[in-house]
Amino acid sequence: MAYSVKDVIHWFLSKEEMSPKKLQKLLYYSYAWFLTLQNESVEELENRLFDEKFEAWVHGPVIYTVYDDYRHQGYRPINRYEGQIPAFDDETEDVLNQVWEVYGHFTGNELESISHQEDPWIKAREGYSALERCNVEINDESIFEYYIQRVEYEDE
To answer: What is the residue extent of each domain of the chain?
Structure first.
């Protein structure tokens, strides 16, 4: 069962205020790690954190609807979420907490830089120059294949 992207947004924003760029990258990493850890193989990618897809924009992975919701913020931080924190099952909560522990201390610009060194974003932007607008979708297979190597590497 996929959650709503809004629930994941509220979960991250309950931690601290943050720039729209940082939020987008945290959404990307939570999606990527959930996809990788909650599926057995690249042939069976049925478990997704949420249904929205990421596009390979100049500044890294972006969900267009989330961009649209927060574009008025510009570079200003989005206020901390003070409402009811969404409830997730234990495995999902674990993935979100791990993503927060690993990536939460980085700025949006630092997370952009990290995503620019990873294959899913690089492959989706093939044929585009560094500053050229691109809305090619980063596919789930590319995400899974890249991050599963990191899981297997860390298990050794």
So the answer is: 5-155
